[in-house]
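Dock phenylalanine; give full complex structure.
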Amino acid sequence: MSSREQWSSRQGFILATIGAAVGLGNIWRFSYVAGENGGAAFLFLYLLCVLLVGLPIVIAELALGRRAQGDAVAAFEEAGDGSVWRYAGWIGVFGAIAILSYYAVIAGWALKYFVGAATGALWTTAAEGYGSYFKTFIANTGEPIAWHAAMLAAAVYVVAGGVRKGIEVVNRWLMPILAMIIIALALFALSLPGSGAGVRFLFSPDWSVLAKPEVYVAALGQAFFSLGVGMAVFLTYGSYMPRNFRLPTSAVAIAVGDALFAIVAGVAIFPAVFALGIDPTAGPELAFITLPQVFLQMPGGALAGAVFFFLLSAAALTSMVSLLEVPVAMAVRRLKCQRWKATGLIGAIILVLGIPSALSFGVLAHIKIGRHGILDAIDAGVSNFLLPITAILIALYVGWRLDKAIALSESELGEGKLGVCWHWLLRALVPMAIVAILLQSASVL
Ligand code: PHE
């Protein structure tokens, strides 16, 4: 155990966990889900979910991970060999692989757009319109796979470098740069004439949307996905956390950093969308069809567009790294595999697993699972089902199975009001909220 790697500093650890949390979810997914669900009132619900459901689980995951000093499954090993709790760890690992397989495909789209925006190719294709540009690209066979492979190769390179020299270093560099970029883009968007409507959309609530049950499903799903809970990422990152890092403050930094990033991304996106009179409810295509159009029309848009797609690709990379670390930590520990071999092999497996998603808008477009194509079906299955299930298991394990005194001391919340409140959230509110939302989403299907 003594040879187990640890984060070199608290700041590096926090940047790495914020890097895991901040990703396509904060920019691509947040903007379209908020756009579809009414803006400000959705934002309010989402923040409530982060605070009351997401944050307690982040604390639970980090505490379990640090206690176990192992991988995702080790976090539940205390429950005993034959115990069903261990499946929670396995579901997390399986989920991380499943998410990564399609997440890397979308990250590949972002990379393609970044290269296109930087070389100028993206701005000369406007004649055909971005709708058909995007659809032709994703319907292609070789191209989406090649970009998917490129993003995976980058993630493999980082993870193979190890916890300190790979993951921590990349996040230390990238996260402050990404924060500056998103703030600059937001200020730029606010300076556009007519941006006020976008700001109102995001901040002045129309409470009537709260009458729609699907808004609650969307808010909780977004909180889970964006924080990255329930995928064993914080169990794994927590296992490299030294005892002297304050756990609750780290968890709060992750939740606040992640939510702020999404809000500032919203400020960068909606004012620009509204200033140009474009519909914010475009759905998943918002970042890839609507935004290039916005950039093309606005002054300085070519530069802003290149910077935006760099941001999207880099934010996706740091999340991919965290997801890849979950199975890699497992292989290194259980199979005693060398890190670089494990990373290369798992990267290759995920490359292959992602191919059906990469082709799901082209040659495999005819394959439908329910009403969804392959990529959308995996996304819906993971975000609406697997993430909440693992999150419930973690909440119940820490709330009911783990000794209360251990839970309170491992989380560093102590026996005071804060600790008791957190423990009850995990025991009752968190599981109930998740079950309610799962039932709701099953009836929406
Ligand atoms: N939180 C990441 C995002 O917002 C995605 C992610 C999900 C990362 C689950 C890790 C675990 O894009």
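Observed: Residues 273 and 334 are 49 Å apart (CA to CA).
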